[in-house]
Design goal:
The protein is 39% helix and 18% strand. It has helices spanning 3-15, 25-36, 88-98, 117-131, 146-160, 184-187, 197-208, 220-223, 243-255, 280-296, and strands at 45-52, 55-62, 67-74, 100-105, 139-144, 168-172, 232-237, 260-265. The radius of gyration is 18 Å and the shape is globular. The protein is an alpha/beta fold. It has an eight-stranded mixed sheet, with helices on both faces.
């Protein structure tokens, strides 16, 4: 265990400059893009701009030895920030280590496009893959933070629309409860180096746009029916306000007789697998995600 690495990373995250007072959405987007651009992207992948179901996307492929299957990836950013590029390092590491291509979707963002626009876009992308002849058993949905939540809610929406569910779900530190009722929202306040409860309340309001959060597509951790779900891997750190989102979703999965791996790592921050090369636990977590993906995909 890399205690000194974890301490150094926590210090680095806390020393990052913070805006004076509430920042505008545009400045938050710019700051998030700057932060995420610092993560190195493996050179052994190809990136090609493309389009899926009318939305921009990036196709990420291994340079050699591509295996059959698709990782449909949804980036993070509190439903109001980010793009495929901000999640590219983590996406590329999955592609590099699995040999499976990824399609990273540029779904619509709040506040310009509040709930359920992002879910609609993600569902349309999944449906487009199926319409193009892909077997659901050859698709894994994956995402980080808000995108991890979208991997879950897109599966809910797909099942309810009568579509076959994907082969599996990989969710890194997913946001799964817009009621913000998890106990870790209070117990991890000040411990989480990224988020505060007030900051999450503000970005949550941008996405909700006044809608009641007590519904399955906004709070699957507490009201979602997971019957018929595919196996899931949830990876989360103990230093996160969102810790209990994953814990409670795993409980609901077990109650629904769904295979679930709840992978909790001590003393690491939000979406810690993104810190490959900086944190031993990140490399190990990505390896576990890669094993899950390769075990789940059935190719013909």
């Amino acid at each position: 265990m890399s205690r000194e690495q974890r301490r150094a990373l926590d210090r680095q995250l806390r020393e990052a400059p913070q805006p004076d007072g509430p920042a505008s959405v545009e400045s938050m987007r710019e700051g998030f893009a700057r932060l995420m651009s610092q993560f190195p992207i493996p050179s052994s992948v190809r990136r090609t701009p493309t389009e899926v179901a009318g939305r921009p996307a990036v196709l990420v492929e291994p340079s050699t030895g591509q295996r059959a299957g698709t990782i449909l990836y949804f980036h993070g950013g509190s439903f109001s920030l980010g793009s495929p590029e901000t999640a590219m390092a983590l996406t590329a590491h999955l592609v590099e280590r699995t040999g499976v291509r990824a399609l990273s979707l540029d779904y619509r963002l709040a506040p310009e496009h509040p709930f359920p626009a992002a879910i609609d876009d993600c569902l349309s992308a999944y449906r487009a893959l199926l319409d193009d002849g892909a077997d659901a058993a050859s698709i894994v949905l994956a995402g980080d933070s808000a995108g991890g939540g979208l991997a879950v809610t897109t599966t809910l929406a797909a099942r309810d629309a009568g579509l076959p569910v994907p082969a599996g779900i990989v969710a890194f530190s997913p946001g799964l409860d817009h009621t913000r009722s998890g106990g870790s929202m209070a117990t991890k306040e000040g411990i989480d180096p990224f988020f505060t409860a007030e900051g999450m309340r503000r970005t949550g309001e941008l996405y909700l746009d006044g809608q009641d959060p007590h519904q399955p597509l906004l709070a699957p951790a507490i009201v979602g029916d997971l019957s018929g779900f595919p196996p899931m891997l949830l990876q989360v750190g103990t230093n996160e306000l969102l810790l209990d989102d994953s814990v409670r979703l795993a409980d609901r999965a077990r109650e629904a007789d769904v295979d679930v791996i709840l992978d909790v790592v001590a003393d690491v921050p939000h979406v810690f697998p993104a810190f490959v090369g900086m944190l031993d636990e990140a490399d190990e977590a990505v390896d576990r995600a890669v094993l899950f993906i390769t075990q789940r995909l059935r190719t013909r």
